[in-house]
Amino acid sequence: MNIDFGLGNTAEYQVALRAAMELGLAAKGTTSPNPPVGAVIVDSSGRVVGRGHTQPVGGPHAEIMALRSAGNTARGGLAVVTLEPCAHTGRTGPCTQALINAGVSQVVFLHSDPNPVASGGAKALQEAGIAVQQVQAPEGAEDALLPWLTATQLGWPHVTLKFAQTLDGFTAATDGTSQWITGETARNHVHEDRARRDAIIIGTGTALADNPSLTARYLDGRLREKQPRRVVIGTRDISAASKLHAAGYEQYGTIDQALSQLWDTGARDVLVEGGASLAYGFLKAGKVDAIQAYLAPVLLGEGRGVVSASLAGTLADAGRWRTAGVRHLGEDVLWLLAQS
Ligand code: AOF
Ligand code: ZN
């Protein structure tokens, strides 16, 4: 499909798509089991006249929020959405109909909807005479929908394994000290990321050894507005004196029990934060969809590893990951990996 969007050049809708992706990112962590979608409305002069993102479950979808903020200026305009507009009546009405009613003449979207109940929106819009085009994400833009898309296809939560390590692969020194391997910028990123997940998971070993609170905080220690669910996997009792007790948490005996219960209760995007034996369990079971490694410019020579046991006895058997992105965070580097 080759459509003239009347915007002069494609750079303008790339800007709109970036804006929509940023709106989606702002909603991440607040929408599950629904996707964190972002939407903008652009008028015929290329000006962004409406913005919106998915509201917490049961609330309006991104398109509805963007149309509300655009008002009458949506007529004849372009809607840029990170997910194919829904064609169904679920907890809310179909966004396709709202776009048609608002008189939008063009729709650009990033991802097709893998949810069979809601999909078919592109076709419905075309049948109503609206020009529809699916586009690629702009280079380097963070895509908030990826975990939800994978989870929806799998029928199982998307799992990100996260760790901070020295340049030579250690998460703690031989005496057990691990605070801090990475600098402030990277640690702040971890907290921002926690707030955008549905749950953070640790093993009982880490809960007992580190006594973490697993909250999402600002650098000054204040709690962020959105807190993820805190989940501990393992059968050992967590002491009543643990900070987790105060913050509230859930405990499951096995990885499968935890993920199955998390899925059933709406979690789609979960973060595994340690320790080494839980990381081993998730990796060995093939339950890791993405890795988020924070690499610090420190060498220890000896120390505690990221994973507690062997994943491959010979190099040819070792799983190789695909680099999905690299970011500088102060003196540290965030390495994002996906399954190849
Ligand atoms: C959202 N936000 O911006 C879009 C969604 O039960 P409902 O009516 O809220 O519908 C949820 C489904 O709608 C969701 O699984 C997805 O397939 C589709 N699109 N959902 O929550 C949005 N565009
Ligand atoms: Zn919708």
UniProtKB/TrEMBL annotation:
List the Gene3D superfamilies. Cytidine Deaminase, domain 2, Dihydrofolate Reductase, subunit A
Task: Report the cofactors.
Answer: Zn(2+)
Task: Indicate the residues that form the catalytic site.
Answer: 63
The record's listing under InterPro entries reads: APOBEC/CMP_deaminase_Zn-bd, CMP_dCMP_dom, Cytidine_deaminase-like, DHFR-like_dom_sf, Eubact_RibD, RibDG_C, Riboflavin_Biosynth_HTPR
Q: Which reaction(s) does the protein catalyse, per the Swiss-Prot or TrEMBL entry?
A: 2,5-diamino-6-hydroxy-4-(5-phosphoribosylamino)-pyrimidine + H2O + H(+) = 5-amino-6-(5-phospho-D-ribosylamino)uracil + NH4(+); 5-amino-6-(5-phospho-D-ribitylamino)uracil + NADP(+) = 5-amino-6-(5-phospho-D-ribosylamino)uracil + NADPH + H(+)
What GO molecular-function term can you cite, just one? diaminohydroxyphosphoribosylaminopyrimidine deaminase activity
Q: Output the superkingdom of the source species.
A: Bacteria
Family of the protein in this entry: In the N-terminal section; belongs to the cytidine and deoxycytidylate deaminase family.
Return the protein name. Answer: Riboflavin biosynthesis protein RibD
Q: Which organism is it from?
A: Corynebacterium phocae
